[in-house]
Each structure stands twice: as structure tokens, then as C-alpha cells.
From TrEMBL:
Zn(2+) binds at C193, C198, C219, C222. Residues 55-335 form the Deacetylase sirtuin-type domain. Its EC number is 2.3.1.286. This is NAD-dependent protein deacetylase. Binds 1 zinc ion per subunit. Its main location: nucleus. InterPro entries: DHS-like_NAD/FAD-binding_dom, NAD-dep_sirtuin_deacylases, Sirtuin, Sirtuin_cat_small_dom_sf, Sirtuin_class_I, Ssirtuin_cat_dom. It catalyses: N(6)-hexadecanoyl-L-lysyl-[protein] + NAD(+) + H2O = 2''-O-hexadecanoyl-ADP-D-ribose + nicotinamide + L-lysyl-[protein]; N(6)-acetyl-L-lysyl-[protein] + NAD(+) + H2O = 2''-O-acetyl-ADP-D-ribose + nicotinamide + L-lysyl-[protein]; N(6)-tetradecanoyl-L-lysyl-[protein] + NAD(+) + H2O = 2''-O-tetradecanoyl-ADP-D-ribose + nicotinamide + L-lysyl-[protein]. One of its GO terms (molecular function) is histone deacetylase activity, NAD-dependent. Belongs to the sirtuin family. Class I subfamily. Residues 1-12, 347-361 have a biased composition (Basic and acidic residues). One of its GO terms (biological process) is regulation of multicellular organismal process. It comes from Kryptolebias marmoratus. NAD-dependent protein deacetylase.
Amino acid sequence: MSDAPELPKKEEEEVSSEPEEQSEDSSEEEFVGDTDMDFLRSLFSNTLGLGLAEKVLDDLTLEGVARYINAGKCKNVICMVGAGISTSAGIPDFRSPGTGLYANLQKYNLPYPEAIFQIDYFKKHPEPFFTLARELYPGQFKPTICHYFMKMMKDKGLLKRCYTQNIDTLERVAGLEGNDLIEAHGTFHTSHCVSSCCRKEYTLDWMKEKIFSDEIPKCEKCSSLVKPDIVFFGEGLPARVFSSVKKDFPCCDLLIIMGTSLQVQPFASLISRVSKTCPRLLINMEKAGEASPTLGFLGFGGGMDFDSEKAYRDVAHISSCDDGCLALADLLGWKAELEELVKKEHARIDIQDEKKNEPSGESKGAAAKASSASADAPAKAEE
């Protein structure tokens, strides 16, 4: 657990938003098995010196990545993003010392910080989660420069898919749609009754009303708890994640990883699913996902190699995600366009928020009468 114009699409490349018939457990087991095989192939290949990959970047820098994009050599960019892309919107990440979410949960009297996102604890003690949900609920934050950079890549026909660990829905607010997104750790966008016999679905607005009225959401059909469709510890990832990975990653020609520590599996292992020739760009406050013998022998091979003599495709740009996206946009000649997009979209959101907060016709009338009565009161008192 951490954090628009339509593209031309080919039917065979579409990823259905409907879950596949196979169970989530079988999908995940099959995925992990595939990852094991990928690691073994890589191990034997590297040990025997076979299948050395071609270097496709002329320089392992952000400038090299920009030249690769501007040369028209990639049309299937995949973004993998985590909580770090939303911190500038005011949403805390999970693990930063002192400021991260886990460092500030003492007020909930949890047995340990992660309990707030564990399904068994939630079913017995839902109150802490819904209190936290009220603080972090979608609709209170604006997308960041990073979110709009991905939207711009979509508009320019470059974005294959965004795989996100985040549950804040800011990718959707920025203009990415259902087919553009794989919300690997679920989303607040929909909610379901937790009873396996019921599973009634509820909307974002329904859940918001319950949370902000200090109610524990209960199913209208069976009175069981209703939980947003975010993936808790103890739950499997959506089946769509695994089916999509199989279709998307083999054709990826640039993997951009932003704002994630790459510590949560199986999401972190996705970096190994692209081909050996696919460049991988990390935009993050620190290096992440570097090759580890321990992770390799556990079946999560394919770690990043930024600094060794054998490094040939991995680039680390150490900065905030917004600064990194602005720097890349500048090198691509998109900076002014990106800044204008952010300005325009933030203004649009502000106008929408103002309209939402305006009193209705009846409320306006009542307010006017109250104001009039208040103004008349001193005159009547003088009489």
C-alpha cells in the first residue's frame, strides 16, 4: 500500500475495464511466476554473456531521454507513479520521516501505523480509516505539474498507460480517463459493500456524503460496512492490473517512474517487465529500485542500474517530481505549454469550487431576507 482528446487506439491494444473471469489470486500467482521466469532468464543471460541489449539512449541523462523522445523513437510511454507526485498538492506521502502519513497517525491509537490500511483491522475498527479519509478525501486537492505532464503526454499521443499506486484520483482530475489508468492500489472513485454475499456498489458522491457527515458508511441493502475500492493490506490487487501488464509492458518503449520508493510488491517488480532495450527514467527525490541480490533471488529481478560500468538504459533525475517534469518539458520544448495548461486547469477548478460553494436559489433568498431583517432591526428599535 503506499500512493482530454482521445488517443488514436487500435482495438487489439485496448485494455478492458472489465475484470477478467479468472480470480485475482490466480492472476497474481501467474504474474509472480512470470516474474520468476524473467529473473532466471536475465540471470542466465547475464552470467553467460548472452543477449546483450542494445543501448538506445545516446547519454544516460535527462537530456538523453529528451533527445530520444524528440527523435520520435517512442510512442508507447508507460508511467509508474507513487505518492511523491502528489505531495506538492498537499497530500502527505507514506514514509517520509516526520512528515509522512505513517509518522503522524498517533492520534488514531493504532497498534501500529499500517493497521489503518489492513482489512481485518478495518472490519473491526473502521473509525480511524474514515477519520483519515475525511482529511485526505478526493476533491480537496488540485493535480500537480507532474499530473498535467502525463496529461500532456496523452494529448501528444505518447502515453500508453499510467500505472499508479495512488488513491487520490488526481490523475482523473487532471484529465486521464479510465482506459489511460491502471489504479494498482485501487481508488476512491467507487465503493462496495464488504459482504461477499452482497457487494453492492456505491458512488464517490455517496461515500463522500457519509464520510463528511461523520457516519460510518453502511450498506443500504444488508447493513454491512461499505469500503472505498482501495486495496488494503490483506487484499489482492485488481485482476485488471495483471492482465494489463501482460499487454502493455512488452510494447513499452520508455518507462518513466516518478515519486515512488519502489518498495511495495508486486508494483515495484513492474520495472522488470519492459524489454531489455527499453530506457527507464526515474524522477524522484532519491534513487530507488536499484538492483539487489536479495530481491533478485526472491523473484523480483530487473533492478535499476544507474552507476555501474554496465549501465546502459537507466537514468536517475534526482529532484521533486514537479521540477523533474518541468525540466524534461523544457528540454522537449513543452515548458510554456505545460505551465499554461496548469494555470488554465487550476483556474477552472477554482471556478468549479466557487460554484459548488455558492448557496442555492432558496438559500440566497433566505440569506437576503435575513440580511434585510438585520438591516431593519436598528431602525425599528429607534422607533
